[in-house]
Amino acid sequence: MSANQTPPSATYESAFLKACRREPVPHTPVWFMRQAGRSLPEYRKVREGVPMLESCMRPELVTEITLQPVRRHGVDAAIYFSDIVVPLKAIGIDLDIKPGVGPVVEKPIRTRADLAQLRDLTPEDVSYVTEAIGLLTAELGTTPLIGFAGAPFTLASYLVEGGPSRTYENAKAMMYGDPELWADLLDRLADITAAFLKVQIEAGASAVQLFDSWAGALAPVDYRRSVMAASAKVLDAVSGYGVPRIHFGVGTGELLGLMGEAGADVVGVDYRVSLDEAARRVGPGKALQGNLDPTVLFAGTEAVEAKTHEVLQTAKGLEGHVFNLGHGVMPSTDPDALTRLVEYVHTQTAR
Q1: To the nearest 10°, the Cα dihedral for 334, 338, 344, 346?
Q2: Which one of 2, 193, 235, 318 counts the least CB within 10 Å of its CB?
Q3: Residue 150, by phi and psi: left (phi above 0), alpha (psi -120 to 50) or beta?
């Protein structure tokens, strides 16, 4: 760690990390998934003409983009600007992020021979991540930085389907039809994901979030049988660092208990399940994160405050609560609505 870099302990007493540890907080901490991104004019300006994957590999650009929402909104945590397919690109998978489509994989993984594409990830493969986090932690001071990665199931879905899918027919066909190949694929992805998170933590990230964006497509029995072990392997691999581990998926109301069981310290809840009900499903010993419906932000200040008040009321009995949206910030969201939301939560929950 360089001499001018703030040691991770500088963030230890932050409201965000206290909430993750289920300790008393001065106010409910707030951050937003996709807070760094298209909703900000300053983001669109610095990204102009720079392809998505390239923007994730330029440390100065990553630093600027990650800091933008912290400066503008006064959120309680920054989230490292990247994409879930970055570690796959870093090990040589032929993929690109196509505007308006998402990640597209040139040669989908369909057979055992295709697994050879997935070699181990080394810190040297993502040296730009270490560099960017060094720059960021120096700038952020006492504001925590959240590192992140895609969970094995979601990465496997992209790799097997060859791109985004609504039905996951190829991925599920492999899961049901060739469970051994599926297990080996997820296990390999778990190692790559764990290595990617370790790089971020060792560079100075104060917490990590594992995004299992598409896990909501699974029934609980299939999640437990075919997916949970791989996510648990990732979360266990970083348990020794003592940083909070957040686990989030979309449409995962039926899986909340299992996602907590996989090893999360904080379970992210989307907007479909109220936080008090989520707490019942997850059980004691975990903080919760969430869960305002992101579309409420289009409804005007009064409606936003009314819905936010509802979320805060349902969070009252929780052991720990990090306020967030129940999914990412939508691209056409008014940034001022987010700034006002942060202010409202801080004011309403000041202890």
Answers
A1: -170
A2: 2
A3: beta
21, 38, 225, 281: which is the annotated catalytic residue?
Answer: 38
Mind giving me the DSSP string for 299-342? Answer: S-HHHHHHHHHHHHHHTTT-S-EEEEESSPPPTT--HHHHHHHH
Does residue 72 have an active-site annotation?
Answer: no
Among candidate residues 12, 21, 83, 276, the one labeled active-site is 83
Q: Which one of the listed residues 43, 80, 128, 158 is annotated catalytic?
A: 158
Look at the block and give the residue holding tokens 């008014």: 334
Q: Which residues contact 14 (CB under 8 A, 6 or more apart)?
A: 29, 76, 77, 142, 143, 144, 206
User: Is 38 an annotated catalytic residue?
Assistant: yes
Q: What's the confidence (pLDDT) of residue 7?
A: 46
Q: Is 158 a residue of the active site?
A: yes
User: Active-site residue among 22, 43, 47, 80?
Assistant: 47
Q: Which two tokens stand for residue 101?
A: 């489509």
- Token output for 1: 């760690």
- Rounded to whole angstroms, the Cα distance separating 303 from 333 reads 15
Pairing assessment for the beta strands 102-105 and 95-98 based on DSSP bridges: antiparallel
pLDDT < 50: residue spans in the chain: 1-7
217 vs 204: CA distance, rounded Å: 33
- Please indicate whether residue 340 is annotated as part of the active site: no
Task: Determine if the pTM surpasses 0.85.
Answer: yes
Specify whether 334 is catalytic: no
Distance from C-alpha of 5 to C-alpha of 67, rounded to nearest angstrom? 16
